[in-house]
Structures are given as structure tokens and as C-alpha cells.
Amino acid sequence: MAVGKKEISCPPSAEGTGLSDADISQKNVTYFEDHPNLAYSWTAGQAMSRFLNELKNGKLIATKCEKCRRVIFPPRIYCELCYKPIDDWVYIKDTGVVQTFSISFIDPDAKPLEKPVIVAVITIDGASPNMGIMHIIDEVEPEKVYIGMRVKAVWRPESERKGTITDIKYWKPLEG
Amino acid sequence: MPAVVGVGYYGFNTNTPDMSWKEIMYEAAVRAYEDAGIDPRRDVDSFVTCAEDFYEGFAIFDEFVPDQLGAVVKPTCTVCADFLYGLATAYMQIESGLADIAVVEAHSKASDMKTFGEIIRHAMDPIWLKGVTRAHPYYFAALEMSYYMNKYCISEEAIAEVVVKNKGNAILNESAPYGAKLTVESVLNSPFVFYPMRKIEIAERADGAIVFVVARDEIARKITDSPVWIKGIGWWSETSSYDTRSFEALYAYKAGKMAYKMAGIEVPVKEIDIAEIDDRFAFKELQHIVALQLAGKFEVCELMREGYFSRNGSLPVNVSGGNLGVGNLLEATGAQKSLEVVLQLRREAGRRQIDCELGVAQCWRYIPTASGAVAVFGV
After folding, report:
1. Which of A21, B208, B248, B273 has the fewest CB atoms in 10 Å of its CB?
2. ipTM surpassing 0.85, yes or no?
């Protein structure tokens, strides 16, 4: 398995013949370049505003549907299965279980990352099964991560929190 | 033929700082299902949403829709076009036997866009048009307006009349944020932003969401006493080459013909009682009235001046306030037009109720397009 591996290759037959930087810079191919200024500012809304503001407090909050009795996380104002408004807000823990994970070696531009990133979906303690968030795991060797591993949130210091999902820096293994 | 059996909407507002786009969809959907008396989890066979990714600000919009519509683990799809194209999709799904009850949704969260001009500009052909100038792309509409006014002797006064009429109509519509009592003189004294177009002739953007429940003939009769039949529907595109277009809304003429033929309408001006028409630039209303065969191209100005298209005129156009009064609802534009026609046909339009049995709703796909769709509704 390629855990921890940095030099990634594939069979020569699959690599093809790419354009070189020179082909582009010398205009051997005809192209038109544009860098559009597309900017958005999304309203977070009822559910996500509360969620983001609670992150500033170092807390995770979920919503509850009394019909199916699920604790819904990330929170929304409706239960998507019962199709009714939610009934309550409940705090859940900042610990959870790795449901699935991947070790990523390259960035969106296909350039190797300095250090592999462990991306994981984490089911949060206190939320209903399969309710959790996708985040990153650190403070652990990539080869030691496993499905079912218990993890805990590592928060930014309160003064640095901005009400964004990165107020949690990462999740680390929970010993014991 | 399929019928509209439930409508719901949320809005319309200049801004919606308290609700996300998902939440306004939910609010509109809950109202539509209540209106139709159905449970989406049990009764709906197909959900069609209408959205353009660049308006939303993220890709693959269709993945984001099931939860708030009650469509989890159900057939859903997104049409990258105005609501009326989605209505046509639902119509076809029902007529083909794939669905008995289908839901169509469209919304605008225009207030989430910080660089609207740049986003519209991004719809231009990147090689051929985009690099020419960085001026705000509303000039596309002004170019068309200039051609249209010159060719058909359209007066500035007639265009000002459209603004006065629609913003005036909007005062009676509690859901319209841009109502105003104006005079032709005050419009003509207002400043130009894209000569020959004045700022006041441009519909401001608005937020809102609209959901329709559409059902097969026999089911529609069962679940409601007031079905509104979709008698005809059509859509049409000219060409993407801006410089070889008709500049005369040929797309609306052809889409209208397609819908009228389906509805068995031979002389639209005699048969249509109410029209809700795309007026996101005031001159577009005159152009679209002619394209939909509701007036002759050389008589439309005179008719507008006489009040023929007023709320109490012979053929009321944009009783809701139109886009000038309600706002530019982006891909929900055709939805707001259809909503007004349905409410009027159901006699639920309150203070702005007019006497009508057959109505037409029309949308254009906005600049820089020459595409649009038309639906004919009847009771």
C-alpha cells in the first residue's frame, strides 16, 4: 500500500504526451486566457449561522427531530427524512469515530503535497449514526489511521476562532 | 393534460440575510405541498429544479437539492435554465408516464452574488466577445434596445409607460419589493446608464423561491377543485452569435407559436386574457408583447399609451408588477410569471384580481442570450 509514499507514478502507457510549459509560453497552441472575478457571499441561514457561531464557543451543535428521534448533524432546520421542521437544538461532543478516510498526496493542481493530508469522515459522539463531518486528521502517522479509530477535535485558541469550519484545526487520535 | 395543483413561494425580497438559499427553497416547498394537500415523501414521483451554477456560486447544483424538497432517495434532476424549461420537463415526464405527480422548483438568491456584472460577463463567448470591453454587460440590452427603437419607431415615452405601469401595479402586490408611483415625466428625467437606456428601466435583482406541484389529468381532478391546466408550452433559441441575431425576440415569437399551437390558440390577442411577460429591461416588454402576437409591431406604443395593457385594460400585462416591480428573479423569473397567472386564474390574486380564464407566461434567459420559453395556462 502507498501509505506515506510521495513519489507517485503510473504505467508509461497511461501517462500520454502532455503539453510542456514552453508549448504554452511560446504560444505553440492558440488560446485566450481570462481570470474572471466571480465573488459570492453566501447567507449562512438559520441552521448554519447557529452552527458557525457555536464553533466560536468551541462547541458542536446539532438539531433534533422528535418524529424519527435522530440527532441531525450538521444541523438543518428541517428533518429531510420526515420532511418537517426540527424540534430542538442539542449540543453534541467534540469526539467521534473515523467512518472512512483517505490519504491525499497531491493538491488540486496535481502537485505533490509537502506532507500527505489525512481526510476523514467522522461520526460525532451524540449524533445519530452516519451523522458527522468531513475533516482532517493529524498528530498521527498515516499508516496508523484506521476505520473505527476514536478521535477528538483540536480547536484553535478562542481568540483565533472566526466562526468557520477551520476553527477546528484537525482531529487527533483519542487514546484509551 | 397535466395541471398545476399546488403553488408555494417565499419572497420576494431585495435581500434575505436571515435565510440560506436552501431554507427559502424549503419554505416555498412546504407551502406548495400544503396548497396541493400532498406529502412529498409519499406522493411525488419526480422533482425538477432549475438553476445555473454560476448564479449559485458552486458547481453541480443538482446534488444540493433533495433534502429541502423532501426528495431524498427519489428521482431528481436539475435543468440549467429558467423555471419554464423545468415545467416543460415535468410536463414531458408526466405525459410519458414516468410520473403522476412532479414538482418543479426555481429560486433566486441574487443577494449572494457580489460581482453580478462579472458573472453575467462570464456568460459571453470567451474568445469572441468577452475581451472586447470591461463595461458592465447591461450594454448588451442597450444595444438591442437601440436597434429595436430605431427600427420600429419606439418612443421613449412608451418605454417610460412600461416602467410607470409595472412599478404602479407592484404597489398592489405585497410580495413585490420595487413598487413605486411614478410619472412618465419623472422617468424621462431620470439618468441614463447605458444610452439609450435609463437606470430606472432596468429591473433590480430580488431573492425568492417558487415551487409548483404538477399532476396528471385524472389525479389533478382528484386532489383539487381548482386545477390550472398547462395547455401549451414551448421553448426556443436563436443563436449564440450575438452579432447575427434578430434583435427582435424571435425566440419569444417561436416559443410562443409552439405553445399556442399546442393550446389550440389561433389568434392570441383575441383569446389571451392576461399575460406575464419578461420585462427585465423595460423595452423588452414591448418587444415581447409583439413577439407573443399580442399587438402589432407598429401599434404597440400607441396601445401602451392608451392603457390597453394596464390592470384595467383590455389585455393586462404584468399585473403582478413584472420584473420591474417584483425584481429580477434570475432563473425563477418564469416561475414568478407562472405563479401570477395561476393565482389570477384561481381568483386568488386579491386586490389585483382581474377577470381571466386563459393566460400566458413568458421568460427570456436574460443577457447575453436569445433564448426563452412560454407557457399557456387555462381553467
Report:
1. A21
2. yes
CATH number at residue A58: 2.40.50.140
- What residues of chain A lie within 8 A of the CB of B126, using their CB? 32, 34
Mutation for testing the B interface, residue in A33, A50, A80, A84 having most B CBs under 10 Å:
A80
CA B91 to chain centre: 17
Domains of chain B: 3-114+207-223 (3.40.47.10), 125-203+228-378 (3.40.47.10)
CB of B362 closer than 8 Å to CB of B276: yes
B7-45 residues labelled b (16+ CB within 10 A) or e (exposed) = bbbbbbbeebeebbbbbbbbbbbbbbbebbebebbebbb
> By a Cβ cutoff of 8 Å, what residues of chain B touch chain A?
16-23, 26, 39-41, 54, 57, 66-68, 70, 72, 109, 111-115, 118-119, 121-122, 126-127, 130-131
**What are the 10-residue block averages of pLDDT along chain A, 176 residues in total?**
56 75 85 90 96 97 97 96 96 97 91 93 95 95 95 98 97 87
**Per-residue pLDDT tens for B6-44?**
999 999 999 999 999 999 999 999 999 999 999 999 999
How many structural domains is chain A composed of?
1
Summarize pLDDT for B163-195 with one digit per residue, the tens: 999 999 999 999 999 999 999 999 999 999 999
Amino acid, single-letter form, for residue B110: A
Grid coordinates given for B257 = 407559436
